[in-house]
Amino acid sequence: MEHVIEMLDITKEFPGIIANDNITLQLKKGEVHALLGENGAGKSTLMSVLFGLYQPEKGVIKKNGEVVNIKNPNDANDLGIGMVHQHFKLVHNFTVLQNIILGVETTSHGLLKMEDARKRVIDLSEKYGLMVEPDAIIEDITVGMQQRVEILKMLYRDNDILIFDEPTAVLTPQEIEELMKIMKSLAKEGKSILFITHKLNEIKAVSDRCTVLRKGKYIDTVKVSDVTKEELSEMMVGRKVNLEIEKIIPQIGETVLEVKNLSVNSKGNNKKLVDYVSFNVKKGEIVCIAGIDGNGQSELVYALTGLGSISSGSISLNGSDITNESVRKRNIKGMAHIPEDRHKDGLVLEYSLGENLMLKRYFTKDYHNKGFINFRSVDKYTNKLISQYDIRSGKGTKTTARSMSGGNQQKAIIAREVDLDPEILIAVQPTRGLDVGAIEYIHNQLIEERDRGKAILLVSLELDEVMNLSDRILVIYEGKIVADLKPEEVTVQELGLYMAGSKTQIISEVSAHE
Q1: Which domains, ranges and CATH numbers included, belong to the chain?
Q2: What PANTHER family does the record tag this protein with (predicted)?
Q3: What is the pLDDT of residues 146-198, one digit of tens each?
């Protein structure tokens, strides 16, 4: 039997949208099979059908040629199907070991038998190169480690069909490389892997075959070695996509944002998470803060945008001191922010798309009268943004933000922030978890803002993005700026060394402040 899993003619509908329209997917034993598509193409929905989270309106699923009925994730587990979700499903205050065995605990006379479980987890982690610390608490370990815990959860349950949903969206370049090795070794052991992604480099690096979906429909299944990245992106988006970023030479103007000796101490002790950082961003340039996740980028952005406190130092915008201003005051003075975590800091998930688009404008005189919101002008404005930024949703402005795909949620945030016509745009991981079509769109938006003379501070973990978009790169390591580089004068490998702390530039106080 060639196929371990066959999903035949699967149709899944939600109110107002056909998420999967008659899709067929066949997975061979021991292969890494990529599922490629834009956000909202129906990839996660199809995998949720296979994992028993949704029931399809039409179609059948076969395992080893036999029709199976998967009513819930327990049925999927019994059939050896496991899934690592894009947003991990871990209990944060439990240990690694407790998370791995949760739901399949071994007990004796009502007591947990942890020793056998511990031995098995250690054996599995050694066999597959997934080294984890069994007694570490989940909230204390890195995102890359949390992902290993999710993979071990599947292996502990003897799953032989492994679904990875956008597994690299939150990983550093080094962790991504590690994960690719792990996936290859799992396939070599006879596991069959379904890999949802929209990153073409990763598909080329690790997948044997690739099935492409577009707007809920099946486009084709191809052998990865037979196609180019350009061909894959065209199948996915339905048009030619320019994977190269074209920029004109920047016309740099006056300083917009100036940061001097900024420090942020951690809450529990006086460790400096941001350590006397000084830099500036001028009109017409994209300055990128590059670094491995967890080196103080988040705390720095929180301090700049007013979402977090600072311990010392100053921040000024167009010469005016905003160190102690509220978030709204900073917005009004010309700061916009595309946050790293779109669910936590970017959107009110229970609000509608229209309400989210208005969050920074509803209080201005154009949109309210004597304390009452003028809904006619609000609708006109939000509909304009939806069409201008091609934000796709089932019910237009009335759609709940939570129900939208990640890419469309991100477009909504970008529409709201860029339309403020800010002096400085702080964009943190603006393309995290997005597909090539959306990435191309967002990159073009950022370049367009820069060419209009705006100052842009980009914070990114994607090295390609850093190299392609930046006019200047500031590398952050353990809360310090360790290098100020020009992308055309540095290689990706060298940048990686600065990011890992193996190399530093001596940045004098003078040059950091000029």
Answers
A1: 3-237 (3.40.50.300), 252-334+422-514 (3.40.50.300), 347-421 (no CATH)
A2: CARBOHYDRATE TRANSPORT ATP-BINDING PROTEIN MG119-RELATED, GUANOSINE IMPORT ATP-BINDING PROTEIN NUPO
A3: 888 888 888 888 889 999 888 876 666 677 888 888 899 889 989 999 999 87
